[in-house]
Amino acid sequence: MNILVVRNDKLGDFITALPTLYVLKHHNPSNRIIVLIAPLNRKLAESCDFIDEVIVDSGEDILDLANTIKQANIDASLTLFSNTRVALAQWIARIPIRIAPATKIAQIFYNSRITQRRSEVKMAEFEYNLQLTRALFEDINLDFPKPLLHFDEDIFKAFCREYGVTKPLIAFHPGFGGSSDANWTLNEYIELVKIAESNNTINVVMTFGPDEEKLYNEAKELLGESRVILYRSVGSVVDFAALLSRFKLFVSTSTGTYHLASAVGCETFTFFGDSRFASSGRWKSIGDEKLQHSFMIPVDPAGRAAMFEKVKQELKNLLLTLSSFSS
Question: Domains in the chain: how many in total?
């Protein structure tokens, strides 16, 4: 069966779809798994051995998109997050089975509409995605390995040679993006970084996206003379994933890089908005739950200040634990 899975939004959202793709492929290895994704996720999708074909949605008009989909000879589609454009394109392409959550006006173009009420956050986003597969295969096994993604050590070894890394590596990623609506200021991140830097059993890196030059320069100025490594990611998402897979801890807000870190098996220390929509309950990642440390940042100043003190103490405790394992 040729199965199209649609998740054509941000990095973190696509990562929440990976378990769905995995279980569909492993339910029957003869299934051909095809994804419709955003351009930024292409290389990551192509690196997954449970994805057979990648269709990149570059924003073309509905008829062009429908024609591309039609050429893939799809038997069934699962649209994990829908809009009218992708729904209508699938209808025009005449996919026989079109499955999607029963939300928005776009649902009229699907012939299998599943009521989920994701706004109630009774499970995480990736778990809602997995549940949709049962509309296609009632007996499908929803288990998947953790970590789900694996990469070789070559990029990490080159990174260690370039920056003189000789100890376990702890990363801080102060950038802000995705669905996250809460984060610490750069000054607060620097305070957390200095806590880690005081631990002589580890190396510390601050990571920045390719479009975060201003943030990079501000951090460099605030750190002054420091042994902290400042790293701007200029390669692909797959290159960054390979690095993350060898980091011991990744500290960030709830954004795509957090989901990527967890998917490759890195322990995470993550900050979420204090709302149901932005919560760790909704955006729990696909990695081992025991390796996910989650903190919801209150909106009110007093609650935020109290949470920051808690975060500092929890980070100190975790770093001590990691140091004892590495010694």
Answer: 2
pLDDT of 19 reads 98
DSSP summary character for residue 239: H
Are the beta carbons of 86 and 69 closer than 8 angstroms? no
Over residues 205-237, the pLDDT tens digits come to: 999 998 899 999 999 999 988 999 999 998 899
**Is position 24 within any domain?**
yes
pLDDT tens-digit map of 26-48: 999 999 999 999 999 999 999 99
- Indicate if the pLDDT at residue 280 is higher than 70: yes
CATH of the domain at 42: 3.40.50.2000
Q: 255, 212 in Cβ contact below 8 A?
A: no
Question: What are the two backbone dihedrals, phi and then psi, of residue 52, each rounded to the nearest 5 degrees?
Answer: -95, -30
User: Which two tokens mark 226?
Assistant: 């420091």
128/220 same-domain check: no
Supply the range of the domain harboring residue 52. Answer: 2-135
Question: Helix, strand or coil for residue 6?
Answer: strand
- Counting DSSP H helices and E strands in the chain, the numbers are 13, 12
Residue 121 Ramachandran class (φ > 0 left, ψ -120 to 50 alpha, else beta) = left
Instruction: Find out whether 307 and 285 touch, Cβ atoms under 8 Å.
Output: no
Q: Is residue 227 part of a domain?
A: yes
